[in-house]
Write a structure and sequence with these properties.
Length: 467
């Protein structure tokens, strides 16, 4: 059957691509072994292995979807074929009408002959039970034939023919759909090749160089509106401070960027948020290529979150940092060791804890716990870090360490930080967004926003006239 052949071809293509991915991973493993003593190579290999793991996951999801779609199409084809056979049987009954009517006439004639014979036998007083049997048999046959005639006469043959044609047309469309699935697979394979090439060659940077593009964003908690038509473009590798009085929507805005607010039952939002100016975080797919999709877990890995109050896991410092990479498929011990060291060094915590990695993360001081949470987020190799007042619960010395750390981190990450301290925003941020009553009043470079604001409300806030 055509559908079976197409299905087998799809499976063969996918198996070939999975095999290529496995070969690619084996090559990477060989490179890893050679680079065991080279720190920079290990870091790069971790990034590549993580990308391959995500790629294989995408491929498997797509394979499952193809399998489900093909099974549905095949079931529909079989169902249509059964209905077509039923219609054809009804039409055949129409063609048999004349034959049935002729049979009845013959049987009636035979019955009349039998009746005349019975009368003669009665007169002659001879047994005639055999004739009665023949007569009842004929009656049953007549009843059966009449039933068939009734079914045939009540059937709308023109409609039946039309239904058959429609179903056959549908079957043709389903066959075409199978071919389309094959084309989709070819497109997806091209995407895999593109992704494989991106492991070797760095992707070209977006001309706009944007971490997020937010368009017409509204947010609600039940019937209460929290954000009103937010439009903002956030550049990469910068520190963006989000300021404004309490209850103005700063934290709500921050939490929409990696959809953590979705966990709140009465929360809803509308509008568009594009990660890297390309991936719609609500549809979880690229606006450029609909076949290029991401998962919600991948979004939250790429956009890490650090909360106001430090929240390390009640496990060792080492396990806190290595937890994310392990979930993402990194199993090699030497690689995990390097990730932990690299993350703790980036979070300016390595020198303080390198001899006590087995100690519980909750035993550290408040400032150390916050840096541990930053290290835990960095270990997942994110692109963007969201921070909701990361220093509000810390003393001035610990806050200064975090601020210095953020200035170092912006080389590798985009940092979006909610803060109530305007001095902190001036000290470390490149851009500042001012929110008031759920609206984005002004977004500009920090220097311009504080020295020469465009809006009077912004000027009043930074001058301390309200807060």
């Amino acid at each position: 059957m055509k559908t079976t052949i197409l299905y087998q071809n799809l499976k063969i293509l996918l198996d070939q691509k999975i095999e290529k991915l496995e070969n690619f991973k084996i090559k990477n493993n060989l490179i890893k072994d050679k680079a065991e003593l080279n720190f920079n190579n290990k870091k790069e290999l971790y990034s590549k292995e993580l990308q391959i793991f995500k790629l294989q996951k995408k491929l498997q999801n797509y394979l499952n979807k193809i399998d489900q779609d093909i099974l549905k199409i095949k079931a529909k084809l079989l169902q249509n074929e059964a209905v077509i056979l039923n219609f054809k049987n009804i039409i055949e009954n129409k063609n048999n009408l004349q034959k049935y009517e002729q049979e009845i006439k013959n049987i009636i004639l035979e019955i009349k002959e039998n009746k005349s014979k019975i009368k003669i036998l009665k007169k002659e007083k001879k047994p005639f039970s055999a004739f009665y049997k023949v007569n009842s048999k004929h009656k049953k046959e007549i009843k059966k034939i009449k039933k068939n005639i009734k079914i045939s006469k009540n059937s709308n043959f023109s409609k039946s023919n039309l239904k058959i044609k429609n179903l056959q047309a549908k079957n043709n469309k389903l066959d075409i759909n199978l071919k389309v699935k094959n084309d989709d697979l070819e497109k997806f394979i091209k995407l895999i090749k593109k992704a494989q090439n991106s492991l070797i060659k760095k992707e070209k940077k977006d001309d706009k160089n944007l971490a997020f593009v937010v368009r017409n964003l509204d947010a609600y908690y039940g019937t209460k509106k929290a954000l009103f038509n937010i439009n903002i473009e956030i550049p990469r590798n910068k520190i963006i401070a989000v300021i404004g009085p309490s209850g103005c929507g700063k934290s709500t805005f921050l939490r929409t960027l990696n959809r953590i607010n979705d966990e709140i039952t009465n929360f809803k939002s509308r509008g568009e948020i594009l990660l890297n100016g390309e991936y719609d975080i609500y549809k979880l797919q690229s606006i450029i290529n609909k076949y290029d999709k991401i998962e919600l877990t991948e979004l939250r890995t790429r956009v890490g979150m650090i909360f106001q109050k430090p929240n390390p896991f009640p496990i060792s410092i080492y396990k806190n940092v290595s937890y994310g990479p392990k979930i993402n498929g990194i199993k090699k011990k030497f690689l995990l060791n390097q990730i932990v060291q690299d993350s703790l060094e980036k979070s300016a915590l390595w020198d303080e804890v390198k001899d006590n990695l087995k100690e519980n993360g909750t035993s550290l001081s408040g400032g150390q716990q916050q840096r541990l949470c930053i290290a835990r987020s960095i270990a997942n190799n994110p692109e963007i870090l969201l921070m909701d007042e990361p220093t509000s619960a810390l003393d001035p010395i610990a806050s200064a360490k975090i601020e210095k750390l953020l200035l170092d981190l912006k080389k590798d990450y985009t940092i979006i930080m909610v803060t109530h301290s305007m001095q902190q925003a001036i000290r470390i941020s490149d851009y500042t967004a001012f929110f008031y009553q759920g609206k984005l009043i002004e977004f500009n470079t920090t220097e311009k926003l504080f020295k020469n604001p465009m809006q009077k409300r912004t000027s009043d806030y930074v001058m301390g006239k309200f807060g």
